[in-house]
Amino acid sequence: MRISRKTQWAVRLFFFVLASVLLALWFKENIAALPRATYLTGWLLLTLMVILTVYNGRKKIPFLPLATSKGWLQFHIYAGFFTLLLFVAHIRFRAPTGWFEGSLALLYALVMGSGILGLILSRTFPKRLTTRGGEVIFETIPVIRRSFRERAEALALQSIPEAKASTVADFYAQELAGFFSGPRHFWQHLFEVRSPLNRLLKKIENLNRFLNDQERDVMRQIADLVRQKDGLDYHHSLQLTLKLWLFAHIPLTYSLLIFSVVHVVLINAFSGGAR
Amino acid sequence: MIISSERPERWDESTSFGNMSEADLDRLLSLSPFKEIKPDAFPKRLPLRGILQHDTRLRKYSRGEIVVRQGDHGTSAFMIISGEVRVVLQPELPASILGRKDTVRRSLFRSLTQLWSNSKNPETRQPHELSLGDEVASRQADGGEVRVVLQDVPRVLDRHQTAVIEAGEFFGEISALGRIPRTATVFCEKDAELLEIRWQGLRDLMRHDKNLRQRIDQIYRERALASHLLTLPLFNALPPEKLEKVIASAEFLTFGEYDWSGDYKRMVKSGSANASDKEPVVVQEGDYVNGLVLVRAGFARLSRKFGRGQRTLNYLGAGQHYGLQEIAHNWRKKNSTVPFQNTLTAIGYSHVIVIPTAIIEELVLPAMPVAQLPPLVETTAQAGDSTTGAMDADMMEFLAEHRFFNGTATMVIDLDQCTRCDDCVRACAATHNNNPRFLRHGPINGNIMIANACMHCSDPVCMIGCPTGAIHRQTFEGEVVINQATCIGCQTCANNCPYEAIRMVEVRDKKGRLLVDKDMKSILKATKCDLCVEQFGGPACQRACPHDALVRMNMGSLDHFAQWLK
Fold first, then answer.
1. Which chain B residues are within 8 Å of A72, Cβ to Cβ?
2. Number of domains in chain A
């Protein structure tokens, strides 16, 4: 039986959980009681953390035959989760003591947390972006946003001589100029809240009763632009988040590595042979 | 209301190919084989003299000039008027002599140097990348055409077995009619005058002159058909005497227009790119099953009536066939015969070979093991959907509308998995001196995007008309690459590409200064995805995708694509 590409993760997860449980049992029975078990888990943890960090370096040298990024990411995810087991075994199931150990544990938690967040984002946001439609390259968003603003402004100004009234232009200046001037409703888009768009469209609808046919036609075109701009903001919000989480994960990882090296030095310098 | 409009003519100014004066025409008509052709056999709207005037041209070649290159896709045949030319038999001429590039995979160290040696300026070229080398040169012929010239003809004659083609003989006709790559390189040992006949003209000459048709058919059967049939599983087990019978019975047909790229662009502009009702019909649903249709070159759409239109079920490329299931059904169930179940139409251009039903029944089907016979035809309403079982009809229409079936390395992106991280674009740039060779943007159907990257087409229309052979296949049916040294920036390939996957760029030296010619015009070069032929491990874009969202896929195999979609 061939397993489809999109369900392979479930098979991998099953075997990972199974292997982790077996390994944990084996560790508990055979290793945990050994006098240098903490050293073993510590070095293993550090080695894994270094390998996990190297993934970022692999991305910088795509021209070398260093396996596929997909393979690296799979290893990164499962080995990352495995470090959780090692970490818990390393601290012997107790809370860290002292500010240094506390900071080290906190950094680990932040790296792990940001990693899990990134995994969730990268598995959920792409589908949401696809469903919303209007695919756009992130770097081109400001250019498209500017063109929307210019078109909306032109429509609003065009209505003044045509209708011999400034109702649409005034409405644009009061309610829509801010909306078109930059990215809006970042958090609402992130959490799929549609109320800001609905509010704007409701205001446009309410205004329509005070407009003549020509102005209504202009407002209909502006409302279309509002919807398109909202879609653009949606892409901006989600795509920016997909890029930004790495800016937390990677610096935190390097901080954790530095703290870990200091931790190793301190342990070896001041343990005095204690185990 | 009726609006009068000028009817496009076969030979108006914009479509005429010829350069013949009346004196030239008289001279041509006094030469064999044209003097033996009866002008009365031609219709009034398509006279022999008109064909020669508009569909042929006289071309003078000097010593060392290459007339056709092995592997190029040409659209015309040649006849020698005076002088002689040589065809290279074996060993083949090296790529460097033909104006191409011998691509060598980078060493590990050279790969690593890209880490610090990539240019900060766009589109820089090193001097060695633009150098032609000692063995090859280019020359501007009359009319401004650039030709590649062999520098050392005696050495070529010493080292390579060649044969002479003399005055009155044809060459290049198989490639021109079948839209298949040139099988050999032809060059001039001495000055020669050639008649170039574009494929439309050759087709019409053959249609109305029996002798020429028989002569070229015979050449086609002898040189191309046997080797082609032997590549097909259906025929490769046949003993030689039976294969000869199959070859003798084969009929060759050409549908559609050779210049499908230009047609396609016009259809896209008019919004009728997926109008299957405008495509020339090869086989009509419901018609008597008169033969097995083998697609030799180009593409054909298999469709079935659905409502008022046609629903695309599949598309066939070179090497695929249609009609075997119906023939086998009728052979086994003589009392309940069926007609063709689907319609086959040419998408753009199709060159097909038709083997009569009687021959298939007599020679091919009896030789097939029962287990390998196609299943009986089901004539229920749902039966036609089985062809597309793996893929929804919407996706099939999308692929056909955009002609994506042409790609052997199409960049397919699953947007449900793509995080828009652009690691693919960065990897492409890093492996191409900081110049990405594709756009992560393109037509979308559902969650599938076909990105704007060279697809390394099975029918590479970009290669037609390159004057120096700079754009060529790396290997037989391999990657399509461009030799920067021999690219003259004429834009023919970029204009021909129906997918707009070739970009013309102004090149710079390593300090970022624009390179200019003697008239102070900037030097243009064609650039596109080369599928990382020089790099380790294949396309960097695919290897750089962390989420398995991007794949380079041969769209000739729909099963593979359907499996990937799951």
1. 546
2. 2
